[in-house]
Amino acid sequence: xxxxxxxxxxxxxxxxxxxxxxxxxxxxxxxxxxxxxxxxxxxxxxxxxxxxxxxxxxxxxxxxxxxxxxxxxxxxxxxxxxxxxxxxxxxxxxxxxxxxxxxxxxxxxxxxxxxxxxxxxxxxxxxxxxxxxxxxxxxxxxxxxxxxxxxxxxxxxxxxxxxxxxxxxxxxxxx
Length: 175
Prior knowledge:
The protein is mainly alpha-helical and about 180 residues long.
């Protein structure tokens, strides 16, 4: 019984440490990505590199860990870029994690990285447009087609990056 408790505590400590590493990675990716904005017809289109970390957590850890990382990432944005940026980050992150978790539940984990990534990117944009529309009291849905096209492109890119980096990250979790 005591050995089982020690194993449980070790696993919990390992998961917390891995969450810290993942959150730090997401923050660094977000900062680096902000240094190189993508010229686009709609301001704010980004590759979404930090969402790779959230997807990894969603696919390979407890689902709530992905939600926690998304919310802590939004808190970081709030503290460094202001209230509106924090609200947009939180609304996009919650919508993204929510739809990706729903798809994983509906398809019992038998779903491609590509579909998860593109869906997450699309709903991240939808969450942000909804929040921005409320904040500005102006419907911004006219930008949705452009953002959905960008979600396909960025979702493809982030799914490829996740697929190539996941084995390395999984080794961290197993040690």
